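WARN retry 2 of 3 for item q-0093 after timeout on previous attempt; input resubmitted unchanged.
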Amino acid sequence: MNYALNLGIVTGGGRTGKCSEQNLMREILRHRPFLIGILAGALVVASLGFFVVPFLGVFNISANGNAGPLDWWGATNMNSSLYWRTEDRAMPPEASEAKGLEHYRASCIICHGAPGISPAEWASHMQPRPPKLLEQETQEMSDGDLYYIVTNGLRMTGMPSFGQDHDEADLWNIIAFVRHLNQLSDLEKAELKQHDNPHH
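OK item q-0093 returned
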């Protein structure tokens, strides 16, 4: 008996595809209790892991050393969170780089630095380390992503929520200046260097 007949597939009369699908469905239905059991068991294990792992202290929360699984999880979750929560917004034309410089100098440069200006010494010991905002990874983010981050902050990263004490215009001014970091004039660099940078 040929292989097709062994599988219960009729090879003649153009019914091969239909019979094959029917046999597959029968096999799935026959093993349905077993498959449901596997799925339920996996969900129970995942749920237990979610609640039990924090109590076991499996992941080291020290800011020393290299990035680990917890950092990967946080970065992945951040990207997914931005994908689902960020609105498709464009920077308004009235956003002011000059006004944004004032806010950046007062609140941002201490962690992120600027061209020719290092952040505070302790910022390099944070985990995750605050990014240099003039670099490609930040500059390629959408205006909507940047607005969400500046407005809401990022939990467990040291990035605060500026939306609590800045109005919408100020938030866009900050973003306008971030976009401008790669084109700073000598005068703007001199103004940024006037910030008070406590190294310790």
